[in-house]
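Bumping with the actual sequence this time:
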Amino acid sequence: MDAIRDDLKTAFHKEGYPSVYVELVLAPAWTTDWMTEHGKAKLQEYGIAPPSGRAAAGGHSGPVRLQLAVKCPQCSSLNTKELTRFGSTSCKALFVCQDCKEPFDYFKVL
């Protein structure tokens, strides 16, 4: 988060804003429910399967939701398989499409 803050400050300074303050806000915790459909479409265009479903904001006690299928962002097949629960970051899982054979990240519901 410090690197993101520093990158923002640098970008604003380059645009002529000499005094920049970036406030990091940790509460309420970010959730994938805040993603717009446009944002999810951009993830898919980039080759990352967007989150499907809704997060259990505020903690959820009750039935556990099971993930039935993740759509391949390359060919839209539902014939996919999780390779590892944690991909390049902890918020993504690594999947492979059984039809087109392409690996892809899935952005988990958070």
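The tokens above came from a reply further down the thread. The mean pLDDT is 86.
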